[in-house]
Amino acid sequence: MNIQDYGFDPRCRPENIQGIPARITAVHRGLFEIVCDKGCGLAHLKQGSYRTSEADYPTVGDFVMVDWAGDGESRIRETLPRSTFFARRDPSSSGHGEQAIAANFDYVFIMQALDRDFNERRLERYLTLAWQSGAAPVVVLTKADCVGDASTHVQIAESIAFGVDVCAISVKTGSGLGALDRYLEPGKTIVLLGSSGVGKSSLANALSEDELMATGEIRESDGRGRHTTSHRQLMLLENGAMLIDTPGMRELGMWNADEGLSQGFADVESYFGQCRFSDCRHDGEPGCAIAEAIRDGSLAPERWESYLKLKIETRLADDKEGFLRDKRQWEKNLSKLVRQMKQADRTAPKTGRPPVRIDRAPAQIEHGMSDSRNAPNAERVSRDRPDYRTQACTESFTCAVCGSVVVPEHAGSDHRNHCPHCLSSLHVDNRPGDRASLCKGVMEPIGVWVRKNGEWALIHRCSSCGKIVSNRIAADDNSVLLMSIATKPLANPPFPLWDMGAATASG
Predict the structure, then answer these.
(1) Its pTM surpasses 0.85
(2) What does each of the 507 residues of the chain score in pLDDT, given as a tens digit?
(3) Looking at the record's lineage, which domain of life comes first (predicted)?
(4) Is the peptide bond before 376 cis (omega within 30 degrees of 0)?
């Protein structure tokens, strides 16, 4: 057995270091499987060697120096410098720590299944961390036999994964597997990443042409599989390439991923520096290049929203104290505004002064941190305000068009979508309730239509970007103005009314 077959370069061995080089092939709760020139075996950490925070705790794929013990447990003395490293926020640390996934690999196969697992937002997360690792990401779309035509999914993935190869494969039929051959070179290491049930172990078995890894059935109810891979494991294929199989990840939190974010979202950051103001916060300021790109369709609003969320998670990892400091300051400002609003509510009937509207949270808090409890993207809206996609909006505000005080009561529903006096609104949503739009233009009522159940709904058009949306009317809406909008086409017909009789008679 030769450690160089497992990718070790003798030139990387530091001088004057004790022990022999080995590579970690699996990790089991404090016990490590290793391979070296002496053979394969188990090893544990040398007491005292990894007590400092600077020490790199070994993970699968690491090269380490060990005191070989033959049939017994060898001792790991030191972790050698890494060429690449994939990590995520440790789910068990409440966001305070890093969890090492794999090290010293050349490619990251980001795997998503085309039956039910394909998810654009999750793909963005994997790509960000893959770029951060220092290796080259490759998107592998598995179970292509489950869809009639995989080209649509490939195009969507390519639109997200700029400059990254996207391959659609089927282990069951063998379709597309040949496209992966150029990555499976002797001495190269590939790490397989993806959710449970996407087919990582099945792909490992197919590439090795042997049953190296156990595979499991997929539940019909949600398309998920059990964690058939219970630990991270490195395997040497017959052609000399190596695979690192990993358990499925239910949560993929950001951890120190600034560089990966810039590479994964190069399309978004290309607009930075093009705004009218050099200190633009991209939050509704005039001349914002991001807002203009979203208006003209050059940048998808979902793409911008994903960038903001991942940026905040990365900042939380890089500067937790700074993040919490800003959050505490915003909470203080919020408390002050609440007191002002209550005082204004008490004085409004006497003075006519409208209540103070509470502005929304700054972007770094509003867009929140990841949490695995919300499907499908493992993302959670900030605790500092309700998620209007699922909860009622109970805020009072002053209409930006007519200046009237608008309260949540008397709307007849849980959602207040527009001013009941002038029927105007603001363009604050990309999708109903997400509060993610950068436009902030006035939504003008331009028409009325009737739903199948007989309920009336207003048609709003943004005076800034032209977007058209439909909003159900409220119980306290201005009925005269509603009728005026509804009958406006009849008051201005496209043909002379006196010709109607003649047209009817001739018919």
Answers:
(1) no
(2) 789 999 998 887 878 888 999 999 998 877 899 999 999 999 998 877 776 655 678 999 999 999 998 888 999 998 999 999 888 766 555 555 677 889 999 999 999 999 877 888 889 988 988 898 889 999 999 999 988 888 999 999 998 998 899 999 999 999 999 999 999 999 999 999 888 888 888 898 888 876 655 554 544 444 444 445 457 789 999 999 999 988 765 555 555 667 778 888 988 999 998 999 988 888 778 889 998 888 888 888 888 888 887 887 776 655 555 555 655 665 566 566 556 655 655 565 544 444 444 343 333 333 333 333 333 333 333 445 566 666 767 777 788 888 887 877 777 776 678 898 899 998 888 777 777 777 778 889 999 999 888 889 999 988 877 788 888 888 888 888 998 888 888 777 776 766 666 555 555
(3) Bacteria
(4) yes
Q: Residue positions in the annotated binding site?
A: 142-145, 194-202, 275, 280, 282, 288
Q: Which SS3 state, helix, strand or coil, does residue 132 take? A: helix
Are residues 71 and 198 located together in one domain of the fold?
no
Query: Residues annotated as binding site for Zn(2+)?
Result: 275, 280, 282, 288
Q: How far apart are CA 117 and CA 200, in angstroms?
A: 13
Domain that holds residue 17: 3-81
Q: What is the tally of structural domains in the chain?
A: 4
Residues 122, 241 within the same domain: yes
CA dihedral in degrees (427, 429, 435, 438; nearest 10)? -60
Q: Residue 408 and residue 495: Cα distance in Å, rounded?
A: 42
- Which residues are CB-neighbours of 290 under 8 A, at least 6 positions away? 268, 271, 275, 282, 299, 304, 438
Query: Residues 93, 241: one domain?
Result: yes
> Residue 120: in which H helix or E strand, if any?
helix 120-133
